[in-house]
C-alpha cells in the first residue's frame, strides 16, 4: 500500500515537531516585568501530563502528515488544541512556587508555534470539508463556547495574562465596549455616506475619478499621522462651534479616532459599490426597463441586490481593518484594547500587551468568518435564475 503525504501537512508537521522538540513551552518569571526562564514541555508539566500531551500531539502530527479524511484531520486538530490549552493552564499551576504571589507563568514560543500549527490544520480541514456558511458560523460558535468554558472553569487563572485581566476586569470591559463602538460606529457612518456616494459615482462618470482619487490619497496617509492631523481641526471645532464639545467633539479622544477610521473606511465602500453596480448584467437592467420599472425601482430591486455580495465584501474589509486600527486610538485617548497594548509596551509587560492584542485578533477573526458566510449566502444564485 502506497503511503501518500499531504503537502500542507508536511509543513504543519515540521512546525509542530519544532514546537515540541526545540522550543520552550512555558516561561517562569519572578514577576510580571523581568525576562524569566524558559522551560521545555516535559519540564513544564508533571511526567504523566507531559508525556500525555506529547502522545496527543504525535497522533495529531500523523493525521496532518498523511492524506486522510478531513474529518480525521479536524478531530485531531481539535484534540491537539484542547490538550495544549488545558496543559498550558496546568503548567502555570505546576511551575508557580507555592505561596509566591509575584511569580508569573506565560506561554512560550513553543506553545504559540503549536497553537498556530494545529489551528492551521483545523482551518485546512474545514476548507476541505467545504461546509455551508451556516455550518462555518456554527464551528465558530462552538469554538467560542469552548474558549468561554475554559476561561470560566478557572483552568487558566494561574497564567500571567489572566492575572493581568483579574486586576483590570472592569476596565477591560469598558475598553472593549469603546473598541467595538469605534469599529462598528465608523463602519456604519462609512456605509451611510459611502453607499450613496458610490451610487452617485456609478451614475455620474465624470465624478468617479475625482472621488476615488481623493479617497485613495487618504489611504496613503499613515494611520498615526492621520490621527495626529485631526487633533488641531477638531480642537478648533470644539473651541469655536457652540455645542460641539458637549456632544464629544474634542482634539483628542474618541472624535479624531472615529473620524480617522471613517475616512479610511470610505474608499472600500465607495469603490466596491461602483464595481458591484458596474457588474450588474445589462440584460437584467434591460428586462427591468421592459416591464416598466423606474430608475429607483431598478436600483433597489435589481442592481443593488445583485451588487450586494461585492458591497458586503467591502464591509468585511472595512470591519476587520477598523477592529485592528482602533487599537491605535489609545494613543490619542480614544480608548479600546490599545490601552492595554501601549501600557504593556511602556511597562515592558508582554502579558499586558497580549491582554489587548489577543481579543483584538479574536474579534477580527470572528467578524471575518461571519461576514464571509453572509457574503457566500448572498452570492448564491437560484437554479432558475441561472437557466434564465
From TrEMBL:
Pfam families: BPD_transp_1 (PF00528). It is a multi-pass membrane protein. It is found in: Cell membrane. The chain crosses the membrane at residues 7-28, 48-67, 74-96, 108-126, 138-162, 182-205, 217-239, 251-278, 299-319, 325-345, 352-375. Signal peptide: none annotated. Keywords: Membrane, Transmembrane, Transmembrane helix, Transport. GO terms for biological process: glycine betaine transport; transmembrane transport. The keyword Transmembrane applies. Residues 176-376 form the ABC transmembrane type-1 domain. This is Amine ABC transporter, permease protein. It comes from Neorhizobium galegae bv. orientalis str. HAMBI 540. The lineage of its organism: Bacteria, Pseudomonadati, Pseudomonadota, Alphaproteobacteria, Hyphomicrobiales.
Amino acid at each position: 500500500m502506497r503511503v501518500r503525504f499531504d503537502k500542507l501537512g508536511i509543513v504543519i508537521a515540521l512546525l509542530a515537531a519544532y514546537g515540541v522538540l526545540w522550543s520552550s513551552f512555558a516561561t517562569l518569571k519572578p514577576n510580571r516585568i523581568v525576562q524569566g526562564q524558559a522551560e521545555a514541555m516535559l519540564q513544564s508539566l508533571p511526567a504523566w501530563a507531559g508525556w500525555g500531551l506529547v502522545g496527543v500531539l504525535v497522533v495529531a502530527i500523523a493525521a496532518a502528515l498523511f492524506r486522510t479524511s478531513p474529518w480525521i484531520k479536524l478531530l485531531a486538530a481539535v484534540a491537539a488544541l484542547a490538550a495544549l490549552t488545558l496543559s498550558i493552564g496546568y503548567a502555570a499551576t505546576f511551575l508557580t512556587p507555592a505561596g509566591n504571589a509575584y511569580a508569573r507563568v506565560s506561554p512560550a514560543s513553543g506553545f504559540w508555534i503549536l497553537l498556530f500549527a494545529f489551528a492551521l490544520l483545523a482551518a485546512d480541514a474545514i476548507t476541505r470539508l467545504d461546509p455551508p456558511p451556516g455550518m462555518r458560523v456554527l464551528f465558530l460558535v462552538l469554538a467560542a463556547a469552548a474558549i468561554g468554558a475554559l476561561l470560566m472553569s478557572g483552568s487558566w487563572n494561574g497564567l500571567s495574562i489572566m492575572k493581568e485581566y483579574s486586576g483590570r476586569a472592569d476596565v477591560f470591559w469598558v475598553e472593549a465596549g469603546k473598541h467595538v463602538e469605534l469599529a462598528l460606529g465608523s463602519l456604519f457612518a462609512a456605509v451611510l455616506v459611502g453607499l450613496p456616494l458610490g451610487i452617485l459615482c456609478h451614475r455620474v462618470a465624470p465624478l468617479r475619478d475625482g472621488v476615488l482619487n481623493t479617497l485613495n490619497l487618504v489611504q496613503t496617509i499613515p494611520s498615526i499621522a492621520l490621527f495626529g492631523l485631526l487633533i488641531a481641526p477638531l480642537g478648533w471645532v470644539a473651541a469655536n462651534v457652540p455645542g460641539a464639545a458637549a456632544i464629544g467633539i474634542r482634539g483628542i479622544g474618541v472624535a479624531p479616532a472615529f473620524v480617522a477610521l471613517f475616512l479610511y473606511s470610505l474608499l472600500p465602500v465607495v469603490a466596491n459599490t461602483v464595481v458591484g453596480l458596474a457588474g450588474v448584467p445589462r440584460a437584467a437592467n434591460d428586462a427591468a426597463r421592459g416591464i416598466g420599472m423606474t430608475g429607483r425601482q431598478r436600483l433597489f430591486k435589481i442592481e443593488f441586490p445583485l451588487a450586494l455580495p461585492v458591497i458586503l465584501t467591502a464591509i468585511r474589509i472595512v470591519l476587520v481593518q477598523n477592529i485592528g486600527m482602533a487599537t491605535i486610538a489609545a494613543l490619542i485617548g480614544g480608548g479600546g484594547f490599545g490601552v492595554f497594548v501601549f501600557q504593556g509596551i511602556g511597562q515592558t509587560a508582554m502579558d499586558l500587551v497580549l491582554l489587548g492584542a489577543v481579543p483584538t485578533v479574536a474579534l477580527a477573526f470572528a467578524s471575518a468568518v461571519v461576514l464571509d458566510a453572509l457574503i457566500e449566502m448572498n452570492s448564491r444564485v437560484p437554479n432558475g435564475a441561472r437557466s434564465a
